[in-house]
Amino acid sequence: MKKKCLECGTEIMGRVDKKYCSDYCRNAYNNKVNKDSKNLVRNINNRLRKNYRVLDSFPLREGKTRTTRTRLLDKGFDFDFITNLYTTKKGTTYYFVYDLGYLPLDNDQYMIVKRE
Prior knowledge:
By secondary structure, the protein is of the alpha+beta class.
């Protein structure tokens, strides 16, 4: 019995357990199968990267700086996408995107910090 490539259907020569005729077909098949789940992850990672670039665009003095909510939003920051939270012993919650974070203050002010 001759085996056929799962992607293109051509006859496979070689090992008994071979499923694809070439690396191209193997990659094309797996990309097709995993398209939906990879797309979700790709979109989330793109938003996290954009948030990181926005936070990184503010020059830090001694590991922190201040800005407004409007400036963050104007640069395209999305407050729904963070990587982790850090709560201090006093109960203050910092929102982090990788090693850069922000702390909401009064009057729509935010303090941007960098974790050491």
